[in-house]
Specification:
The protein is an alpha/beta fold. 44% of the residues lie in helices and 12% in strands. The chain has a four-stranded mixed β-sheet, with helices on both faces. Helix 4 links the parallel strand 1 and strand 2.
Amino acid sequence: MRSGTERYPMAKKQAKKGKGAAKKASATEPMAALYNLDAGTSRGDAVRAVLEALGIRAKTVTAETLGRSVGAIVGLVGFRHQAKPYDGEAPQVEFMLLHNVKGERLSALLSAMREADAVVECKAQVTQYNRMWPFATLVNEVSREHEAMTIAETSE
């Protein structure tokens, strides 16, 4: 199997551009918004290494920005960042929100995450339905669904 930069030539090109390129990223570029997977932590760094190898931009979501809409988090046109910081209880799960990561690239990402022992259990794709939700709502909903599925699997 070829590496992420061989399969996705844009990854190599983006890696050469450096950190400044991330600030100019478009809303159509593949990206992953990461919550509780901060840079500098072993899990966060492992996930980010896999994303980088596949040319997927990583963005950190902090507790203060949990009230922003999913659309604003990923930079969709027409979605504004909420000025008021989030003041609810912050979810305690690791979460990855994927935007424009589909098909073969999604399969490669999931496979590479398993190989790197960097699986994020709670993850979602941006959809036309969830893009208006507050990010915290999506994290909590996916977390509850994951917990229910895990309980159902263990009770069988």
